[in-house]
Design brief:
The chain is of the alpha+beta class. 28% of the residues lie in helices and 15% in strands. The strands form 3 sheets. The protein has a 5-stranded antiparallel β-sheet, with no helix packed on it. It has a 4-stranded antiparallel β-sheet with strand order 5-4-8-9, with no helix packed on it. Strands 3-6 form a two-stranded antiparallel ribbon.
């Protein structure tokens, strides 16, 4: 019983630990999910900031499905100086929602707010995002020759391939083409619905087979006696030997010796008559001490 309780406690601890790890993984943020997604170096007639000025800008994309705070990290255009611009903490602007964006303006005017950097973008330069320790590089991009009002970014948000985008999309999806849904793709491959019918029937039959197996084995599950499973195992007691079982020679010898002693050597033959001899003296001999004295031989 103690062993069973110990195993149950271990199982509960493992399950609790797994739930904590899963919950932590689901809600924990990771700076490695951030990507430099789009960059505009030459801004002649494009996006303007809150001050009505046109400057180069940088778009950071959160590829994760949880919120990530970019506060405390660094942006730089100089690999030799990874801590060039420190992004302040504690501002709602730096908290990037899942699959969302934040913009930074490279106008060399950091006094205008958190989103305004202390450097400007240049053709042939570089751009990098560093972790809050100032050593771990999260993402970087090399800026080659640029075109006025044409942004350079990932062809798909968070993707690997870079190129000049047809449209500048600050704070929006980089892909501006027609998005073909999975249903439309399947409809193009199966215009008459034959494949859909086969898949639907396969799913139904598979579900029926699975239900058959489950219901067939339900009886075995209910037949398990949980009381016996969790009860203390009984100590096996050796059953007495049947009367007809053969007795060893030692046992027979002991029985015979006991019977012999009982019949012949236990008691002598004794009379059952009690005789009392009368004493001639008038006093009672019971109080006399002379009978307790030893006679001295002559």
């Amino acid at each position: 019983m103690a062993e069973m309780k110990r195993k149950l406690n271990i199982a509960r601890a493992v399950i609790a630990l797994a739930m904590v790890l899963i919950a932590g993984h689901g809600y924990a943020q990771s700076s490695l999910d951030l990507r430099i997604n789009e960059v505009l170096v030459i801004n002649d007639s494009n996006y303007v900031d809150t001050y009505g000025r046109r400057n180069g800008w940088i778009e950071i994309f959160n590829t994760a499905y949880n919120t990530v705070d970019i506060g405390g990290m660094y942006l730089t255009d100089d690999p030799a100086n990874p801590t060039k611009y420190w992004i302040p903490k504690g501002d709602p602007i730096t908290s990037i929602a899942p699959r969302n964006y934040v913009l930074f303006f490279a106008d060399s005017m950091p006094t205008r707010g958190i989103q305004h950097l202390n450097f400007k973008l240049k053709e042939g330069g570089s751009l990098a995002l560093f972790e809050s320790n100032g050593r771990t590089m999260i993402d970087a991009v090399k800026l080659g020759p640029q075109k006025p009002d044409v942004s350079y970014g990932r062809l798909e948000d968070g993707g690997v391939e870079w190129g000049f985008l047809e449209k500048t999309t600050p704070g929006a999806n980089n892909f501006t083409g027609v998005i073909v849904t999975a249903g439309e793709k399947f409809g193009a491959m199966d215009p008459f619905g034959v494949g859909m019918a086969v898949i639907a029937m396969s799913v139904v039959f598979f579900a029926l087979i699975l239900l058959y197996v489950v219901f067939k084995n339900t009886k075995k599950i209910y037949s398990i006696d949980l009381r016996k499973l969790f009860s203390k195992p009984e100590v096996e007691v050796e059953a007495p030997k049947p009367a007809g079982e053969e007795i060893s020679g030692e046992v027979n010898a002991a029985i015979a010796l006991a019977l012999h002693m009982y019949v012949n050597a236990l008691h002598d033959h004794e009379e059952t008559v009690l005789t009392i001899k009368k004493v001639a003296r008038t006093y009672s001999p019971w109080s006399s001490k002379i009978y307790g004295l030893r006679n001295v031989p002559r």
